[in-house]
Amino acid sequence: MRITVIGSGYVGTTTAIVLASLNHQVIGADIDTSKISKLKKGILPFVEPGLNDLLSEMLKTGRLNFTDNIVTAIQESDVIYIAVGTPSREDGTADLRYLQAVADRIAGAINGYKVIVVKSTVPVGTNRWLSDYLSDKIGNPKLFDVVSNPEFLREGSAMYDTLHPDRTVLGGMSGHAIEILKEIYQPLGSKVLITDWETAELIKYASNSFLATKVSFINEMCRIAERAGANVVEVAQGMGMDVRIGAKFLNAGIGYGGSCFPKDVKALIATARELGVELKILEAVETVNRTQPLFYLKKLVQTLRETVDKPWIVALLGLTFKPNTDDQRESPAIRIVEELLPDCQEIRIIDPTIEFPDQTPWPDERKVVVCKTVEEAFSAADAAILCTEWEMFAKINWEEAVRCMRNPILLDGRNFYNPEQLRAAGIRYLALGRGNST
Ligand SMILES: NC(=O)c1ccc[n+]([C@@H]2O[C@H](COP(=O)([O-])OP(=O)(O)OC[C@H]3O[C@@H](n4cnc5c(N)ncnc54)[C@H](O)[C@@H]3O)[C@@H](O)[C@H]2O)c1
Ligand SMILES: O=c1ccn([C@@H]2O[C@H](COP(=O)(O)OP(=O)(O)O[C@H]3O[C@H](CO)[C@@H](O)[C@H](O)[C@H]3O)[C@@H](O)[C@H]2O)c(=O)[nH]1
């Protein structure tokens, strides 16, 4: 199959590379010329384990190409994937301007029958709108079919998830187009759910919203555990043993971030409002998540106030919204830095994806320092905060850290460490909801 993937971000690039690995002839297209020139050279413009090697391999086969010429890319393929961003607007609704721009390009370039596959996360009603919009612009509805094919990959395991999806959801009105998509995905052997546009769109938002609900739910349990002297890690363990509940997405912490959960929960609330439905559970999920980083931080600030005068030096371990990605979008660590900054002499960030201050949201803030080593970050620090559970932070020698720090206090924002081990090393260990002693 000749396939074009429009949008070469996290989703589009992963999709293009994996489709090439399934023996399709694939063009990745983007208006961002710097991304395209990197990709052509075999350089992934973002961090994603394993994907760079597969990119190089696929480029060598000649089955994968990248271009910034969107028109030619459309004309040379029979199946066109749309994987552009759908960010939040101020009011929480999804901004569909990039999708509309791609629709205009397709309408202007179409030169034969195309299956148009919407991979971007789009609100209920968008695939139907796209089909009507293209019909109007092209003037011949027989020249294309639109299929909703939402993406469920996670950053940090994008390649694995794309090669081993739990399910493939295909929504649409054309049996012919759906058969083509089934054929494309057939080598993956995943379960396929065939449905209509609106259901496919809602499956994507409902899935992300449900996972976000699990996270906010356990974060609320964490707040109770904190007051009651219970251990939320064991509460999650005990809950997760019930197969009806499941053990995943029950890690309490500073809250969820990323380019998906925050935006998709907001967009679903906004869609529901437009439809006259109030989503009370999701509104609460958002509120809990918004307040969660500060709930944690309060505990550290209280301890610091009792221990040492301001301004403080704080080492911040991890700025990305989760490990194994360079994505900082909506990272709760950013909220923490912004909240702490006025009280600090320095915030020293250490993150394996960050080398320079211009890779942080504060390129000109002299109080934000990017460190290359843990020792540098800990030197004379009054406290450390673990925001992202990168593997490198599991290897910290805490005895040495205690010797380096002015005040060996650690706030564990992901309940990542073993409290006994850290206390034995001499750290004043703070977590949330891990029993009376933390
Ligand atoms: N990132 C994820 O983990 C993930 C997972 C599942 C679904 N999604 C959804 O997939 C979509 C894409 O997300 P992403 O994280 O890959 O976004 P991204 O911001 O990384 O990439 C989007 C790309 O689209 C390009 N683009 C914008 N307008 C264009 C145009 N007119 N023509 C060609 N290219 C254009 C941009 O230059 C950019 O490279 C979003 O709807 C998102 O919600 C993301
Ligand atoms: O028990 C948990 C699990 C996750 N998180 C946080 O939740 C956020 C999201 O994590 P994760 O879902 O692993 O990352 P994403 O890459 O954002 O993936 C989500 O969003 C994608 C974009 O829509 C979907 O495709 C995926 O299925 C969905 O998991 C991160 O900040 C995590 O730290 C927790 O706090 N506790």
From TrEMBL:
Belongs to the UDP-glucose/GDP-mannose dehydrogenase family. It comes from the Bacteria. The keyword Cell membrane does not apply. PANTHER family: UDP-GLUCOSE 6-DEHYDROGENASE TUAD. Keywords: NAD, Oxidoreductase. NCBIfam families: NDP-sugDHase. Pfam families: UDPG_MGDP_dh, UDPG_MGDP_dh_C, UDPG_MGDP_dh_N. Residues 315-419 form the UDP-glucose/GDP-mannose dehydrogenase C-terminal domain. The keyword Signal does not apply. Pathway: Nucleotide-sugar biosynthesis; UDP-alpha-D-glucuronate biosynthesis; UDP-alpha-D-glucuronate from UDP-alpha-D-glucose: step 1/1. Its EC number is 1.1.1.22. This is UDP-glucose 6-dehydrogenase. It catalyses: UDP-alpha-D-glucose + 2 NAD(+) + H2O = UDP-alpha-D-glucuronate + 2 NADH + 3 H(+). Transmembrane segments: none annotated. One of its GO terms (molecular function) is oxidoreductase activity.
